[in-house]
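Backbone shape codes
____________________
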Amino acid sequence: MTGDDRRRPLVGISSYQDTAAWSVWNQPAALIPQTYVEAVVRAGGTPVLLPPQPGEAGHLLDALDGLVLAGGPDLDPARYAAAPHPRTGPPHHARDDWESRLLHAALARDLPLLGVCRGMQLLNVELGGTLLQHLPDDTHQVVPARFVRHRVTLADDSRLAVALGPTADVSCYHHQAVDRIADGLRATAHAADGTVEALELTGHRFALGVQWHPETDPDDPRLFQALITATRTVTHRETPR
């Protein structure tokens, strides 16, 4: 192993706990789309999958340099004191609880954090915000398993604008969105219809979420590169008491 290999930051990626099929098997599995793994590697990191599991998350994050909260199913509306909309998917309590622990442990350690789609919504909800449970049809999720490409406008003085410029063409697939923004968070990107497309947490080294899916665009690694750059600015991190 070379010195350069040893310096590749370890980046945790939260993952699904679902039923999957391979070869002759069809059984419960921990999985994540390969695009997340490739995006972290392409940006200069080493990915580490973090499937839902019992217990505290802090001891895991102490060994990591950054965290990606991946996209996935709808959050349980009970987490933001709302009744479920008819179009809201069934709750995934194990994943909600696990990613909540990951998120709070990462923020307590000022660990660089990137939330993708569901990950951004989790960031907002866990800090006290709410969600719109269903956007108008044919806007940000037109047909199953097909991303919608559109342009977002970024706030001039945001971390996102530093990484991506004043606008960006992004790939979205979501039917929910941020409603009330939690205290401490700032909306730093919007779609043309006003949908909040990014949130950044003030007072942290790198804590932001995007409503789109940057991992699906191999020709634009800049957001994952920004995460990796942030991990390399961490010179010392004390474990919270």
Notes: The mean pLDDT is 92. Residues 3-231 form a domain with the Rossmann fold fold (CATH 3.40.50.880). The two ends are 35 Å apart (CA to CA). Residues 69 and 192 are 25 Å apart (CA to CA).
